[in-house]
């Protein structure tokens, strides 16, 4: 599906560009009264449709909280969150991928994907074609009949990504999805996510604490300060996108410089 098709499919009653995200002076607090704890904010952030934004910061700085606010799983204590111009509705605003795949273990790979297609309201007659397309996108051809406990951790996370893509939602949110994977599998999945999102034109917000992962994936990186997280650095990344040689990109001088810059920013933000 092209980005223009995606926009058409998801345009409608909403008033902002499909897949765009806006945070206006967002603060989020957990608990009440004397036990209240401010986890993030104030944060102002505007993510145009089609951008690949990576949120980086030390553990506990509020990255997951921000992502949950954008997904509509939490409402901000102060300020406003808008996705495609509207208040995000949980389960509808975005496709979400968590750190652990959260698949249905008694179902096959095919069963997990089909369930996502059903939730997405895809006509049953189109499931075989859509399923094959999704599995091919994440490199899972031939695994349809396997149970989720029969496949590797990397493959399970691929299923979770395919499931998040099933809804054809213009916004994709990923919360440290590769943190538990070995280095080689992680690099492969990074390459796939970069390619898939470039190809489909989806807006993506990806959370990580790895500067390396951030620079490889992002078209823009926002470094968060330590808790309560605020924007400490907002950096556009102009590395080539689309059909690129990942190895060459990772070995480039430009990549090394950006990684050093982000890594330094994360460390000083955590210490400040
Ligand atoms: P990160 O993802 O950057 O590690 P989180 O957004 O998970 O950070 O958490 C930010 C802060 O908010 C942490 O101090 C965490 O302990 C706290 N926190 C997260 N979720 C809750 C919750 N449901 N109730 C209370 N405090 C929470
Ligand atoms: Mg987190």
From TrEMBL:
SMART domains given for it? AAA (SM00382)
What's the domain of life for this entry?
A: Bacteria
Q: Which Pfam families match?
A: ABC_tran
Cited SUPFAM superfamilies = P-loop containing nucleoside triphosphate hydrolases
Q: Gene3D superfamilies annotated for this entry?
A: P-loop containing nucleotide triphosphate hydrolases
Q: Which GO terms describe its molecular function?
A: ATP binding
**PROSITE patterns, sorted:** ABC_TRANSPORTER_1, ABC_TRANSPORTER_2
Residue ranges occupied by any ABC transporter domain in the UniProt entry: 21-251
Q: Write out the entry's keywords from A to Z.
A: ATP-binding, Nucleotide-binding, Transport
- State the protein's name: ABC transporter ATP-binding protein
